[in-house]
From TrEMBL, chain B:
Gene3D superfamilies: P-loop containing nucleotide triphosphate hydrolases (3.40.50.300)
Record-annotated membrane-spanning stretches: none
Keyword Nucleotide-binding: yes
Domain ABC transporter: 7-243
Name this polypeptide is given: ATP-binding cassette domain-containing protein
Keywords linked to the UniProt accession: ATP-binding, Nucleotide-binding
CDD domains: ABC_Carb_Monos_I
Entry annotated with the keyword Transport: no
Pfam families (UniProt xref): ABC_tran
Organism: Streptomyces beihaiensis
InterPro entries assigned: AAA+_ATPase, ABC_carbohydrate_import_ATPase, ABC_transporter-like_ATP-bd, ABC_transporter-like_CS, P-loop_NTPase
GO MF: ATP binding
Superkingdom: Bacteria
Length: 412, 258
C-alpha cells in the first residue's frame, strides 16, 4: 500500500518514466504488432475520405451535409450493428435486407392500410424481425445448416413475403407527421441538446475510466495513469463537442443520431461487459471450447440471429422513415452489402470472435461519406460502387493479415 | 469400512452413432491418488474423460460421487461437484484473453454483468501460485505458445478449487522442463488431497507419478494395476492386447472391487 502510494506520486512527477505508463505503452505496442488494430484503420480511412472530398467539393464538410450524413447512416448502421453480432459468432446473415423491407412493409400495411395505432404497428414490425431472426437462428443452430445458407434462403423467402404483404398497392406512403416519420425528421434544435449529449457522453466515459482506475488500484493491479485517462477523455471530448458544434450550426441534434448512438453504446456494453456477450465472443473463438465450458450453443446462436433480425427491422423502419414510404424495392439492392461492408470495414473479423458495435458505426460512416461525396461531386454510381467495393476488399485483406499476424505472433 | 472413493464409475457405456466407444467401464479415483488411464489410440480414454466432464453424458452406467449416485449430464454438473478437466485439445478460445479463458463459463459478476476487475485479480492470484513467469493476464490466448496455452488450460482447471482433476495428455505439447513443472504441480495437488485422473502415453510420467493404472482396450476395462509393484512390461502388454485376459493381473486394493 505504501509502495503503491509512492509509485503513484512518481507517476505524477515523471510521467515519461513511470513504470505503469510504460507498461501501458508496451501493451499498446504489443497489441499493434500482434494484429489487434482495433478502430485504427477505419479512423484513418474516414479521415482520408473526408479530406479528399472536402478538397473536391467545399460543401462536403458543411454543417448541412454532415448533419444529413449523420441521419443517413442510422438505418443501415443499425442493421450493421446487428450484423456485428452474427459476424462475432463466425457466421453471416444475408437476410438482413429482406427482413428490414418486410418489417417496414408490415408497419406500413398495419398502420396506413388497416389503421392500427402507430406504436402498435411499430412494435409488431420489430417483433416480426425478432421472430424471423429467431426462426432462422433456430434452424441454423438445430440442423447445423450454415447460417450462410439458411439466411440466403431467407433473403429470397422474406422478400417474397414482403411483396405478398404489400399486395398490389406497390408503394405505401407513410404519415409525414407520424411517429415513424419523425424518427429521422425530428431534431432537437436547442443548442443545449447537442452540447448536453456531448457532455453526458464525456461524463460517462470519465466516470467509467475513473471507477475502473480506483477499483484496479484497490485490487493492486496495473491501472491507467491520470495522463492516459485525461488524454482519452480529452480526445473523445474534442470529437463530441466538435460534432455538437457542427450539428448546432444546422438544425441541432437529430433524434435519429441520438437514438443510434444510444443503441450502439448499449449494445457495446452487452457485447463487452456481459456474460452473454462473453459467450458470443467465445462461440466465435472456438465453438467446442465454448460448449465444454457450459455455453448453451443452440440458445446463443438462435438469440444472435434474433438480435440481427430485430436490428434489421428497426433499421428498416428508419430507412422507411427517411423516405416516408415503403415500396416493393424496400430492403433490396445494395442495403445488405452496405450493412455487411460497414461491419467489416469497421474492423469486425469475418472469421468470428473480433468486432465492436462502434466499429460498425464508423464503417457505415465511411460508406455513407463516400456515397455523399460522390453525390456532391456528381460522380456516377458505377464509380461509387467500384470504390465501395475496393474499400471493402481492403478491409477484408486487413482483417486476414491481422489474423495471420496474430497467429504468427503465437508461434514465435 | 474404507471411505468411498471420490469418484466411481460402474458399467459406463457410451455410443456415438453406430460405434460403441465404451462398454461396461469401471473406474475409481480416490482422494490423494493419481490414477493413470492408459490405452492405445482409440481405446476410449478421451471419451471417458468427456463422460466424466459431462460434455458427452454416458448412455448407461452408474456414477458415484463420495458414494452417492450423481448425474453428469452437463458440463455444469461436473463442475459443481468439483470435477475439473484439462482437455487434450485444451478447449481454449484464442480470441479471448487469459482471464476470459480462465473464467469462461463461470464469469464473476452480478445480473449478467461481468466483474472484470475481480476476475483479473483472482486470475493474477492463481497464476502467481501455479505458474511462475506467466505472461500478462490480458494477453489474448491466440498469441501464446502451445506450452503457455497448456498452462492456461491447467490453471483454468484449478480455478474452482476442484477435488478431482482430469488431465488428458497434459505434457504432450510441452518441452522437457515445462513438462517436469507440470508433473511437479500434479504431485503437489495430490499432496493437497486432490484425486487426479491422468491420461498419458508417456510411461515415464506414469511410473513417476501415478499410484494406480487403469487400462482401457477397445472401450473396455483391460486391467487395473498398482503402478509401484507391477512390472512395466505387464502394463504395456495389457495396453497393446498381448494379454487380453486381464483378470489374473488384477490386484486387490483396500478391499475395493479392484
Amino acid at each position: 500500500m505504501v509502495n503503491d502510494a509512492r509509485r503513484t506520486r512518481q507517476d505524477a512527477a515523471e510521467p515519461g518514466r513511470a513504470p505503469r505508463a510504460r507498461a501501458w505503452a508496451a501493451t499498446a505496442g504489443r497489441r499493434l504488432r500482434g494484429g489487434e488494430l482495433g478502430a485504427f484503420p477505419v479512423v484513418l480511412l474516414l479521415a482520408a475520405t473526408w479530406t479528399v472530398f472536402e478538397i473536391l467539393n467545399r460543401n462536403f464538410l458543411s454543417p448541412r451535409n454532415l448533419s444529413d450524413l449523420s441521419v443517413d447512416i442510422v438505418g443501415t448502421g443499425l442493421i450493421a450493428v446487428g450484423v456485428v453480432f452474427v459476424l462475432l459468432i463466425g457466421e453471416i446473415d444475408l437476410s438482413v435486407g429482406s427482413v428490414s423491407g418486410l418489417a417496414a412493409a408490415v408497419f406500413a400495411v398495419l398502420n396506413v392500410q388497416n389503421g392500427v395505432p402507430e406504436w402498435l404497428a411499430l412494435v409488431a414490425a420489430v417483433l416480426v424481425g425478432t421472430a424471423v431472426g429467431a426462426l432462422q437462428g433456430f434452424s441454423f443452430a438445430r440442423t447445423g445448416v450454415p447460417a450462410f445458407v439458411v439466411t440466403l434462403a431467407g433473403l429470397l423467402a422474406w422478400n417474397g413475403v414482403m411483396l405478398y404483404v404489400l399486395g398490389t398497392s406497390g408503394t405505401i406512403d407513410l404519415d409525414a407527421d407520424g411517429l415513424v416519420a419523425k424518427l429521422t425528421s425530428y431534431s432537437f434544435t436547442a443548442p443545449g441538446a447537442a452540447y448536453g449529449a456531448a457532455a453526458a457522453g464525456v461524463g460517462l466515459l470519465l466516470l467509467a475510466s475513473w471507477r475502473a482506475r480506483l477499483r484496479r488500484r484497490a485490487a493492486g493491479m496495473p491501472y491507467r495513469s491520470y495522463q492516459e485517462i485525461t488524454a482519452r477523455t480529452g480526445v473523445f471530448a474534442v470529437i463530441a463537442f466538435a460534432a455538437a458544434y457542427v450539428l448546432n450550426r444546422f438544425h441541432g441534434l437529430p433524434l435519429a443520431l441520438l437514438l443510434f448512438l444510444v443503441v450502439v453504446a448499449a449494445l457495446d456494453v452487452v457485447l463487452q461487459r456481459t456474460r452473454y456477450g462473453r459467450q458470443i465472443h467465445a462461440l466465435g473463438g472456438d465453438v467446442e471450447a465454448a460448449r465444454r465450458a457450459g455455453v448453451k450453443v443452440v440458445w446463443v446462436r438462435t438469440s444472435v440471429l434474433a438480435v440481427s433480425g430485430t436490428m434489421s427491422a428497426i433499421g428498416g423502419l428508419f430507412l422507411a422513415s427517411r423516405i416516408t414510404s415503403v415500396s416493393q424495392s424496400s430492403g433490396t439492392g445494395v442495403l445488405l452489402l452496405n450493412a455487411i461492408a460497414a461491419a467489416v470495414i469497421g474492423g469486425t473479423s469475418l472469421f468470428g470472435g473480433r468486432g465492436r458495435t462502434w466499429s460498425a458505426a464508423l464503417g457505415i460512416l465511411v460508406i455513407q461519406s463516400i456515397a455523399s461525396g460522390m453525390a456532391l461531386t456528381s460522380t456516377p454510381v458505377a464509380v461509387q460502387l467500384v470504390i465501395t467495393g475496393g474499400v471493402l476488399f481492403a478491409a477484408a485483406v486487413i482483417d486476414a493479415v491481422a489474423r495471420r499476424s496474430q497467429q504468427a505472433h503465437g508461434r514465435a | 469400512m474404507p471411505d468411498p472413493p471420490l469418484l466411481a464409475l460402474h458399467g459406463v457405456c457410451k455410443r456415438f452413432g453406430a460405434v460403441q466407444v465404451l462398454t461396461d467401464v469401471d473406474l475409481e479415483v480416490r482422494s490423494g491418488q493419481v490414477v493413470a488411464l492408459l490405452g492405445d489410440n482409440g481405446a476410449g480414454k478421451s471419451t471417458l474423460v468427456k463422460v466424466i466432464a459431462g460434455v458427452a453424458p454416458a448412455d448407461a452406467g452408474l456414477v458415484e460421487w463420495e458414494g452417492q449416485e450423481v448425474q453428469l449430464k452437463r458440463p455444469h454438473d461436473a463442475r459443481s461437484l468439483g470435477i475439473a478437466t484439462v482437455y487434450q485439445d485444451l478447449a481454449l478460445c484464442g480470441n479471448l484473453d487469459i482471464v476470459a479463458n480462465l473464467f469462461l463459463g463461470r464469469e464473476a459478476g452480478k445480473f449478467g454483468l461481468l466483474d472484470e476487475v475481480e476476475m483479473e485479480r483472482r486470475s493474477r492470484e492463481l497464476l502467481a501460485l501455479v505458474w511462475p513467469g506467466h505472461p500478462e493476464p490480458r494477453t489474448p490466448v491466440v498469441s501464446l505458445s502451445s506450452g503457455q496455452r497448456q498452462m492456461v488450460a491447467i490453471a483454468r482447471s484449478l480455478l474452482g478449487r476442484p477435488r478431482v482433476l482430469l488431465l488428458d495428455e497434459p505434457t504432450a505439447s510441452l518441452g522437457v522442463s515445462q513438462a517436469a513443472k507440470v508433473l511437479e504441480l500434479v504431485d503437489e495437488l495430490r499432496e493437497r488431497g486432490l484425486g487426479v485422473l491422468l491420461i498419458s502415453h508417456n510411461m515415464g510420467d506414469v511410473k513417476a507419478l501415478a499410484d494406480r493404472a487403469a487400462v482401457l482396450r477397445l472401450g473396455r476395462n483391460n486391467g487395473f494395476f498398482d503402478v509401484n509393484t507391477t512390472p512395466q512390461e505387464q502394463i504395456i502388454s495389457s495396453i497393446t492386447g498381448a494379454t487380453d485376459n486381464a483378470v489374473p493381473h488384477r490386484t486387490t486394493h483396500r478391499g475395493a472391487r479392484w
